[in-house]
């Protein structure tokens, strides 16, 4: 058992929570990055359409697209490596950096959706952010 203040957590539960978070984000972000790379034209057209309501970002859709793709790819690869190397057990390098990249990618997504006034899409990303925050908590408690 790990004790943080008055919180007591079973170590096996923390390890499973870390595993689930890593698996979730590996699937989400590897699929998303793969889709962006294999269907660049369709995804960039979607970005241009979404950001037409956000004049400050409209001229930056190309760099924003590739920046988000790199963040998602980094998150997916590091989370997958965290699973393969079992670094989620100890909160090691790959797992902790995968979760950091995932959190940054989600912040980028929610920023873009709020700027584009896509409040429904931003609400969906908020649910993913909750998973990221719980994952961060699982890593913080178990150290």
Number of helices: 7
Alpha-carbon distance between the termini?
12 Å
How many structurally independent domains? 1
- Could you list the spans in which at least 5 consecutive residues all have pLDDT below 50? none
Topology, number of strands: 2
H/E series: EEHHHHHHH
Mean pLDDT: 88
Fraction of residues in H or I helices: over 70%
The main β sheet shows up as: 2 strands, antiparallel
Shape verdict: elongated
What percent of residues are in strands? under 5%
Kindly report the spatial arrangement of strands forming the biggest sheet: 1-2
| Helix-strand category | mainly alpha
Radius of gyration: 17 Å
List the helices and strands and how they pair.
Elements: E1 2-4, E2 7-9, H1 11-38, H2 40-50, H3 55-58, H4 61-84, H5 87-90, H6 93-115, H7 119-141
Antiparallel strand pairs: 1-2
